[in-house]
C-alpha cells in the first residue's frame, strides 16, 4: 500500500514539475505570455534578454484636439512587447470607432530603472516610504512588457489621474468589455485585492496573447493568479464548471489515510468541487463511483472510490487502495 501511494505521489509531483517548466503560452513561443509576476513571484531571470520590444508613441486620432489648458500628453517613447503592441493598436482602433480614445501612459519598465526609482525614493523619503509606495525591483508586472497602463481623452481633456479614472465607470465598462477579444485581461479587478495584492486599477491591462484564455478568465471573473492556481498561500478559488458539482455529497469533508497518521496524506473535498490533497489545491468531479481529480495547473487523474460511512476507500490508478477515515 505504501509503495503505491508513493508512486501515486511521484506521478503527482512529476506532473506539477512538468507544468512549472513548460509554461502554457503559445506553442513555440520564446516566452510564456501567461508569466506570473506579482509581489510573490519575481520576473524570470532571463526575461529581459529574450523579450521582443518595440517602440511606440502616442498620436491623436484625426480630428481630435486637446483643450488649451491640457499640457499633459504622454509623448515618451514607450516600449511594449511586439505582439502586445499590435494587439493594443487593434484594440485602440476598435474603440476609436465608437469615439473612445485610449492612450499609452506607462508600459515596460526595466528592472534596472526600477532599482534607480527605488534608490531615489529611499534617499529622498526613507526606506519605509519606498517600501510602501515603490514596487520592489523584479516584482512589477511592468517588467514583462506585457502590461500597459492607459489614460483617456474625453471631450478634449486627458484623464490620467487615478481617482478621476476610477470615476469613469461607464467608459471603462465599455473598454473592459473588448479587452479579451484582443488577448488582454484586466489585471487588478475590483474585489480581488487580497489575491492580486493591488487595489482596483481599471487602467492596467495585461496581454496574455490568447483571446480564448482571456475570455475564460473574464467570463469566470478570475484573476491571473486564480487561473494559474497560484493564489497567495491559499487554495485556489477557481470556480468549478457546473459539471464539477459532486454527485456524492457524502465525500465532502476531510479525510486522512488511516494507516499513515501524521503523514499529511489528507484529502479535503469541499462542497463546491474544490479541495486539496496534501495541501495541493485540486478540483474534483464525481460520476457514480468514479472520481476525477485535477491538481491545479496539472493534468487530472481518474480513479474509483468506495464510501462506507466514515471510511473512504480510494483506489489509485494502479489498482491498489488506501483507506481514508473522516477527520
Ligand atoms: Zn500598471
How would you describe this structure to a colleague?
The protein has 327 residues and is α+β, with helices and mostly antiparallel strands. The chain folds into two domains: 30-228, Muramoyl-pentapeptide Carboxypeptidase, domain 2 (2-Layer Sandwich); 245-326, Lipocalin. It contains ten helices and 15 strands. The protein has helices at residues 2-22, 47-50, 82-96, 111-125, 127-133, 162-167, 169-179, 193-196, 211-219, 224-228; strands at residues 53-56, 78-81, 101-106, 147-154, 157-159, 184-186, 204-207, 253-257, 266-269, 274-277, 280-287, 290-295, 300-308, 311-315, 321-326. The strands form three sheets. The protein has an eight-stranded antiparallel beta barrel. Strands 3, 4, 5, 6 and 7 form a five-stranded antiparallel beta sheet that branches. Strands 1-2 form a two-stranded antiparallel ribbon. Strand 9 and strand 10 (274-277) form a beta hairpin. Helix 4 packs across helix 5 (127-133). It is elongated and about 80 Å long. 29% of the residues are buried. Residues 1-26 and 235-247 have low confidence and may be disordered. Bound molecules: zinc ion (ZN). Zinc ion binds next to strand 4.
Amino acid at each position: 500500500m505504501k509503495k503505491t501511494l508513493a508512486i501515486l505521489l511521484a506521478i503527482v509531483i512529476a506532473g506539477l514539475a512538468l507544468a512549472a517548466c513548460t509554461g502554457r503560452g503559445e506553442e513555440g513561443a520564446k516566452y510564456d505570455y501567461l508569466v506570473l509576476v506579482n509581489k510573490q513571484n519575481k520576473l524570470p531571470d532571463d526575461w529581459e534578454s529574450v523579450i521582443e520590444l518595440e517602440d511606440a508613441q502616442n498620436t491623436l486620432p484625426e480630428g481630435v484636439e486637446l483643450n488649451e489648458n491640457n499640457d499633459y500628453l504622454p509623448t515618451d517613447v514607450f516600449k511594449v512587447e511586439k505582439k502586445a503592441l499590435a494587439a493594443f493598436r487593434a484594440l485602440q482602433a476598435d474603440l476609436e470607432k465608437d469615439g473612445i480614445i485610449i492612450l499609452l501612459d506607462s508600459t515596460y519598465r526595466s528592472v534596472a530603472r526600477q532599482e534607480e526609482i527605488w534608490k531615489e525614493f529611499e534617499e529622498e523619503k526613507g526606506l519605509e516610504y519606498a517600501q510602501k509606495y515603490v514596487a520592489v525591483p523584479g516584482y512589477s508586472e511592468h517588467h514583462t512588457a506585457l502590461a500597459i497602463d492607459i489614460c483617456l481623452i474625453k471631450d478634449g481633456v486627458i484623464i490620467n489621474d487615478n481617482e478621476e479614472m476610477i470615476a469613469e465607470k461607464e467608459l471603462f465598462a465599455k473598454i473592459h468589455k473588448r479587452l479579451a477579444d484582443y488577448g488582454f485581461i484586466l489585471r487588478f479587478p475590483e474585489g480581488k485585492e487580497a489575491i492580486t495584492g493591488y487595489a482596483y486599477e481599471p487602467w492596467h491591462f495585461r496581454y496574455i496573447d490568447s483571446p480564448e484564455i482571456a475570455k475564460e478568465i473574464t467570463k469566470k471573473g478570475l484573476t491571473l493568479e486564480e487561473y494559474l492556481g497560484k493564489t497567495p498561500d491559499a487554495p485556489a478559488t477557481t470556480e468549478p464548471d457546473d459539471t464539477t458539482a459532486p454527485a456524492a455529497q457524502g465525500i465532502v469533508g476531510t479525510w486522512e489515510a488511516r494507516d499513515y497518521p501524521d503523514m499529511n496524506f489528507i484529502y479535503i473535498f469541499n462542497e463546491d468541487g474544490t479541495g486539496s490533497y496534501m495541501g495541493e489545491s485540486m478540483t474534483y468531479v464525481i460520476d457514480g463511483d468514479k472520481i476525477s481529480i485535477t491538481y491545479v495547473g496539472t493534468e487530472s487523474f481518474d480513479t474509483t472510490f468506495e464510501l462506507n460511512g466514515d471510511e473512504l476507500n480510494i483506489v489509485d490508478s494502479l489498482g491498489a487502495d488506501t483507506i481514508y477515515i473522516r477527520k
